[in-house]
Amino acid sequence: MKSPLDDAKQIDESLRHRLQGKQGPLANDLTQAMRSVSHAMESHENAEQLQGNLATLYWERVVGPQAAGATEAESVNGGVLFVNTKSSVWSHELTLYKPRILAELNRFLGKSRITDIRFRVRKLKKESVPIVPETPLLEELKSVILEPAERGQLRAQLEELIYIKDDVIREKIAHRLALDAKLRHWRIERGWKVCTRCQAAQNTEYSLCPVCRLTGG
Predict the structure, then answer these.
(1) Measured at the alpha carbon of residue 207, what is the angle toward residues 205 and 213, in degrees to the nearest 5?
(2) Strand partners, 72
(3) Radius of gyration over alpha carbons of the chain, in Å?
(4) Which residues contact 174 (CB under 8 A, 6 or more apart)?
(5) What's the Cα-to-Cα distance from 48 to each of 5, 73, 155, rounded to whole Å?
(6) In this predicted model, what pLDDT tens digit does every residue of 95-140 receive, in sequence order?
(7) pLDDT means per 10 residues in the chain (217 residues)?
(8) What CA–CA distance (Å, rounded) separates 52 from 75?
(9) Which of 101, 20, 1 is nearest to 56 (CA)?
(10) How many of the other CB atoms lie within 10 Å of CB of 25?
């Protein structure tokens, strides 16, 4: 089962790319078409409400599939877009991106129709997508056998613990390092890629893991 930390780390990278304006020619054509629809609706007597509702339709396009899968843009009231999220972690992370999300939504709408976004932790109405386990049960993890090269890397890490004088702390760290090495092996066996910078197992389409990409990879 995913932890809240996993949720935070796995927020789709396309969110950052979209909010930085990295879109291709086709995306630009679609954006222009959306703006045309938005402008055409301005003469409608309920133009404000209709354009606000368009924001809920644009939500997935703006934030990307990963974030959209954990959220639902529910409604617009008085210029405020209400978005339901599956956890407080998602609410917190998306709040950090709120200014950029607002700018992108209003770019699609052609005018500053949305003035704020309120994130609320609520049960999502849409069907949840089955989650592929990213971590095995502890007993299965303990049974993983490392390759010689992996054992060598682990041995080198454990040797560095000699400088820790507290026996209890040293043993706990050693135990954690061993489990982490086995988890990495388990994930790579199941198709995860190795980050070209930090060598961590990662399950994205990129050569760098999310942490390395965020730190300027």
Answers:
(1) 95
(2) 84
(3) 22
(4) 158, 161
(5) 38, 17, 64
(6) 999 999 999 888 887 777 789 999 999 988 865 555 557 788 888 8
(7) 44 49 46 48 52 78 85 88 92 92 86 87 72 77 92 94 92 93 93 91 87 73
(8) 8
(9) 101
(10) 7
CATH 3.30.300.180 applies to domain 4-121: yes
Give burial (CB, 10 Å; 0-12/13-18/19+) of 131.
exposed
Q: How far apart are CA 104 and CA 177, in angstroms?
A: 42
Instruction: Convert 158-195 to b/e letters by CB count within 10 Å (16 or more is b).
Output: eeeeeeeeeeeeeeebeeebbeebbbbbbbeeeebbeb
Q: Domain boundaries in the chain?
A: 4-121, 138-214
Angle at 124 between CA 122 and CA 130, to 5 degrees: 130
The answer to whether 109 touches 51, Cβ cutoff 8 Å, is yes
3-state secondary structure the chain: CCCHHHHHHCCCHHHHHHHCCCCCHHHHHHHHHHHHHHHHHHHCCCHHHHHHHHHHHHHHHHHCHHHHHCEEEEEEECCEEEEEECCHHHHHHHHHCHHHHHHHHHHHHCCCCCCEEEEEECCCCCCCCCCCCCCCCHHHHHCCCCCHHHHHHHHHHHHHHHHCCCHHHHHHHHHHHHHHHHHHHHHHHCCCEECCCCCCEECCCCCCCHHHHHCCC
Burial of 15 (0-12, 13-18, 19+ CB in 10 A): buried
